[in-house]
Write a sequence for this structure.
């Protein structure tokens, strides 16, 4: 069983349009802010995320990126906050003190993974090449295992259908 099986049932439910609060409401609620200088840079980032299903509407991919791709950024810390939409907080310190809003807080809930990586690099966080290679190896290894498991499930399904077809009707 995969580690995101708790979301299996919720992924099968027909998607209803989600209520999206206004940008002003989100900015106030999450205390989002950025410096006025558009070229600002920093040394550390902290990504606050939930470990639950609705993560960015692309739960599985984002979860895998957190475990694999994010490891390529040595100055990125992942902080699990129950029920939290993904927020990236930037600071010039290696640790966040509770209540400290840092240099900037950016909502990344509508971003694709590539956009998040671009944001990190644009703001001064460098991807370590050896860690990026390791993350890529981990991704490929996971995908190979997933493909192998899918083939095994497909084979089991075929065998079950064949056995069902071979069973005489009473």
């Amino acid at each position: 069983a995969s580690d995101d099986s708790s979301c299996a049932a919720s992924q099968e439910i027909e998607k209803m349009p989600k209520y999206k609060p206004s940008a002003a409401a989100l900015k106030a609620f999450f205390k989002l802010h950025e410096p006025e200088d558009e070229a600002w840079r920093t040394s550390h980032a902290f990504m606050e995320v939930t470990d639950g299903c609705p993560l960015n509407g692309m739960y599985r991919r984002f979860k895998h990126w957190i475990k694999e791709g994010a490891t390529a950024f040595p100055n990125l810390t992942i902080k699990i906050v129950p029920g939290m939409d993904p927020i990236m907080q930037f600071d010039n310190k290696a640790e966040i003190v509770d209540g400290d809003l840092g240099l900037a807080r950016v909502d990344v809930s509508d971003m694709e993974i590539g956009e998040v990586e671009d944001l990190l690099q644009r703001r001064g966080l460098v991807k370590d090449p050896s860690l990026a290679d390791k993350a890529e190896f981990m991704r490929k290894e996971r995908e190979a295992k997933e493909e192998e498991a899918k083939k095994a499930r497909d084979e089991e399904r075929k065998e079950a259908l064949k056995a069902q077809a071979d069973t005489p009707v009473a």
User: Anything to note?
Assistant: The chain has a mean pLDDT of 77.
